Amino acid sequence: MRFLVIGAGSIGQRHGKNLVSLGHEVLAWDVDAGRLREIGAVPGVTATASLEAALATTPDGVLVCTPPSSHMDLARRALDAGAHVFIEKPISNAAADVPGILEEAARRGRLVVVGFNLRFLPSLRHAKTLLEDKRVGRVLAVRAEFGSYLPDWRPGRDYRDNYAVRAALGGGVLLDAIHELDYLGWLFGEVADVLCTAGHVSDLAGDTEDLAEITLRFESGVLAQVHLDYLQRAYRRNLQVIGDVGVIVWDYPTGAVSVAGSDGRTETTAIGDGDANLMYVEELRHFVRCLEGREAPMVDGLEALRSLRVVEAARASSRDGRWVRL
Q1: Residue 156 belongs to domain spanning
Q2: Is it the case that residue 271 has pLDDT exceeding 90?
Q3: Is 306 helix (H, G, I), strand (E, B) or coil?
Q4: Contact 10, 176 (CB under 8 A)
Q5: What is the band of 264 on the pLDDT scale with cuts at 50, 70, 90?
Q6: Residue 13 maps to a domain
Q7: Is the peptide bond before 43 cis (omega within 30 degrees of 0)?
Q8: Average pLDDT of the residues of the chain
Q9: How many separate domains does the chain show?
Q10: Predicted pLDDT at 227
Q11: This prediction's pTM
């Protein structure tokens, strides 16, 4: 197939390389000439100075890998060109802009798939299987955490140039770490109510929140506490699920999933997630199978809109100091 990658930052370059490795034709475009040169140097990727010319080649799929504030405009242009669309998370920085694009995609018979790569991680999938098998009984409470020091994210690049520190572009830890809100919805269903305290508490540059503490009440009655930050010098991403007969703990850095039972014994499974790039490769394989009609999108536009609405509810809660009902 022929794919066009729009946006040649770190994730755009990753997707471009992975698509080439899967045997596809890859075009790339970026408004920044330096980034365009970088992705053009990737063997098998053809950089183009004109977005219009790239869209005119009728790509099968367009991957939108730009700051969130530009996602919906670029998705519309891709749909106008007749392409299916893959949008890096979050689907947008504004939920109100999304339904119109989804309606347009449906009218044209095109897919909108959103990139939430953690769903393709074997260790997290194993945790989901344990939950489905009722290994810890009825789930009562959940704790999820993500923390990482923002200036360390992309070695060799000044973090102040990252959209993450600019609210107008869709930055901030709530949108950047929307993975947590996505996978919690995947595991536990619809969120009913949100309470959040978030803000810019550090000396990092920018006007976005760098810390958020969120409480989610799911329709099922499950209560979840979510911690997100740009601050921790030691990377952390983990999940604790407290059931009435045990506890599941998932730890992303080690790929380990443990189950503590009511008998006091703990069983730990080292899943062996392997190279972190593998989940991105599987994500693209899935996208290709969706285009071939062999699978339905794991995260389509409506599914991605769900987690974006949770982010907006969290921001409203933090601003107004109250629970927000979805």
Answers
A1: 118-274+297-325
A2: no
A3: helix
A4: no
A5: confident
A6: yes
A7: no
A8: 97
A9: 2
A10: 98
A11: 0.95
Q: Measured between alpha carbons, how far is 226 from 214 in angstroms, rounded to an integer?
A: 5
Which tokens belong to 42? 């990737």
The mean pLDDT value for 195-223 works out to 97
The four Cα atoms 273, 278, 283, 286 give a dihedral, to 10 degrees, of -100
Among candidate residues 192, 181, 190, 183, the one with its CA nearest the CA of residue 128: 183
**Closest listed residue to residue 286, CA positions, set 240, 278, 70:** 278
Which of these, 321, 287, 94, lies nearest to 198 by C-alpha position? 321
Compute the CA torsion angle 171, 172, 174, 179 (nearest 10 deg): 60
Instruction: Kindly give, in sequence order, each residue whose CB lies less than 8 Å from that of residue 204, ignoring residues fewer than 6 positions away.
Output: 150, 151, 159, 165, 210, 230, 231
Write down which residue in 80, 99, 115 finishes a domain.
115
Find, among 120, 95, 153, 141, the residue nearest to 305 by Cα.
Answer: 95
Domain boundary pick from 79, 95, 115: 115
Asked if the model's pLDDT at residue 16 lies above 90, the reply is yes
Q: Helices 33-40 and 10-21 sit at what angle, rounded to 10 degrees?
A: 20
Sign of the torsion formed by the C-alpha atoms of 154, 275, 302 and 226: negative
What the block records as the tokens of 67 is 């700051």
For residue 226, list its beta bridge partners: 144, 214
On whether residue 167 sits in a domain, the answer given is yes
3-state secondary structure of 175: helix
